[in-house]
């Protein structure tokens, strides 16, 4: 089976090197906490006000302020800042935490459309940081699409059933 | 629903502060790359040679060298070192990547037993680092148990079906 990150690169058109160029950039210290909170606020303002009802409804049961906090805390941590996300919620576990949502390619593109707009409307993000962030987001969005597709496949793989059946321990 | 990290803390007995005390310790620079590769090698040597067949068989279809590399690259990255794991495999996505395996409480305890032994048999790990690593491992093991249980629940939640049904877009 093709690995998650290979699918993500193929579908997003972003190589893994470009996606994780953020790790050689220290964007938290370049941009600062306030920029990330503003970016996530701009992003979710657009999402919760989206004309496309099918996309807006994905977030219908989620609290907007919580969504903003979850996102900027994750971004701050992932971009080299303090580990705000893990201190409050533990491991990011990106695929599992997106499991309740229908993460299709169409949803990924809509998410990326809003993020592109949010990046453009957030002041103090230089062009180089913007490119690095967008590559990270584009790759990650399709990584999640791949993760959701894998989940659906896993439910019916004979290999998994066979592995479970061969366990001799009843409590296992 | 109780959050993943609350379940992990309750079941493991490790608070989230203790679990992520690693983030204030910079263990990569304290211990160095070689210590992490040795730790993971010691760990998987024990796992692949476990007397308990039910536990050993979980890893039966996985390549031992790959398992060692995946683990030490993740640990190096998570403990403040270079992002070796993401550069090769993308996001850790811990729960999703453990989805093919039966991550029960019994398996978590057996995993932790071997890791405790591996830590003791790896030289140059001071007691304070050992405690921090073991708290991280214990909390994470039960975080994964909680993640797997959530997966099983999610398959049958009416909320999810309802959300899928209400989508008006056929391609969605």
UniProtKB/TrEMBL annotation, chains A, B:
Pfam families per the UniProt record, alphabetical: Bac_globin (PF01152)
Keywords tagged on the record: Heme, Iron, Metal-binding, Oxygen transport, Transport
GO MF: heme binding; metal ion binding; oxygen binding; oxygen carrier activity
Family statement drawn from the similarity comment of this UniProt entry: Belongs to the truncated hemoglobin family. Group II subfamily.
Domain of life: Eukaryota
Cited PANTHER family: TWO-ON-TWO HEMOGLOBIN-3 (PTHR47366)
InterPro entries hit by this protein: GlbO/GLB3-like, Globin-like_sf, Globin/Proto, Hemoglobin_trunc
Top-level taxonomy: Eukaryota, Viridiplantae, Streptophyta, Embryophyta, Tracheophyta
Protein's recorded name: Hemoglobin
């Amino acid at each position: 089976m093709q690995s998650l990150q290979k699918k993500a690169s193929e579908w997003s058109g972003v190589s893994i090197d470009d996606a994780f160029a953020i790790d050689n950039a220290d964007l938290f210290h370049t941009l600062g906490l306030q920029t990330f909170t503003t970016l996530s606020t701009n992003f979710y303002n657009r999402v919760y006000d989206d004309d496309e009802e099918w996309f807006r409804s994905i977030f219908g049961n989620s609290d907007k302020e919580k969504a903003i906090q979850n996102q900027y805390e994750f971004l701050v941590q992932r971009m080299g800042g303090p580990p705000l996300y893990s201190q409050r919620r533990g491991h990011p576990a990106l695929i599992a935490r997106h499991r309740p949502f229908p993460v299709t390619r169409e949803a990924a593109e809509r998410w990326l459309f809003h993020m592109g707009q949010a990046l453009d409307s957030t002041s103090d993000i230089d062009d180089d940081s913007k490119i690095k962030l967008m590559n990270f987001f584009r790759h990650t969005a399709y990584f999640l699409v791949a993760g959701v597709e894998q989940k659906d496949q896993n439910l019916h793989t004979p290999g998994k059933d066979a592995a479970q059946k061969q366990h001799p321990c009843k409590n296992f």
